[in-house]
Design goal:
Layout (H helix, E strand, L loop, with lengths): L1 H43 L15 E5 L2 E5 L5 E4 L5 H4 L6 E5 L15 H5 L3 E7 L2 E2 L1 H7 L3 E5 L7 H7 L1 E5 L10 H12 L2 H21 L7 E6 L4 E4 L5 H7 L12 E3 L2 H7 L3 E6 L10 H5 L3 H4 L2 H4 L3 E5 H4 L4 H15 L1
Parallel strand pairs: 3-4, 3-7, 4-5, 7-8, 9-12, 12-13
Antiparallel strand pairs: 1-2, 5-6, 9-10, 10-11
Amino acid sequence: MMKKRYANGGMAACLLCLALLVSACGNAGNNTNNQNGAAQSSSSAKPTGEQGSPSPKFPRTIQDAGGEVTIEEEPTRIAVAHWGYSDSILLFDLKSVALTLPFTKEQSVLETDQYKPYVDKVNELEIVGENTEVNLEALLSYNPQLIIAGNDTNSAIIDQLKSIATTVVIDESETDVWGDWPSLVTKLGEILGQEEQAASYIAEYKEQVADAKEKLADLQGNVAFVQVRDNVVYLQGKKYLTQYYDQLGLNAPESVIIENGAEISLEGLSKLNPDHLFLGYFNYEDPSLPALTDEWEKSAVWKSLSSVQNDQVYGINGQLALGYGPIGNTYGLKAITNALQ
């Protein structure tokens, strides 16, 4: 057995040497052809840019509120100084992000079911500001490669932000986070080199709006939205809820305050007397916290409301549905449609 294996191994070795010799001769000609081909390919290659060859995503130059800002490399550590951008930035594929929140972390919506898919995909999430104030010490400790700010909201600290890292300052008069989050998502996609991600989310949202509008086309009566806090209730104006009134075609009650909204009392709500009433609770995630409407619901005035008598009062998460960002508005769109259809 040993002799047989040895003999076969020797013959195999001879055949292998012969094959390698033949291959080497053949490859000599092929290498010449390949070199010529490579030279031809190199001489005919198109430069990056408008002639058709794809340009790398970075470096890229962004037009911001102060002029042009060049982001040299794709950032992996991104900080958001504007508290209104936190909702939109989470739509993107990010490894690490630092957020400034409109409320404290404990009061935020980061732990809600709606945010969970977006929060979970981020490897590292830090909070560098609460209650609209940026914590510059925390921001510096986070060591961002890129900071995204707003020229109005962050006007007092722009120079300090720029001293920490490359900073893109979005012109808030052109990119209106409060009334047009798709414009912000588009701008963030441009900054991050994720334009397709931005366009995809916006397109999907528009499809959901169209579907919801069709489902609610035969809705009877008007609809009012109120923001419910612990000691105050605000009527939400049409101007700030265009995503529901205009895009879904909902009718608002007749009122001099319905356009801009205002703080409203139970008596004022009684005069408004909407057919459908959405209570946007800010304690939605923790009902043990107080809400002013808890007291209202005990009164005869409340029980006389048409929406109450017809069982057309709906509780929703006010921080999400009555906010201004894509994640919150997507939640609101679904919650409102499910309640009214």
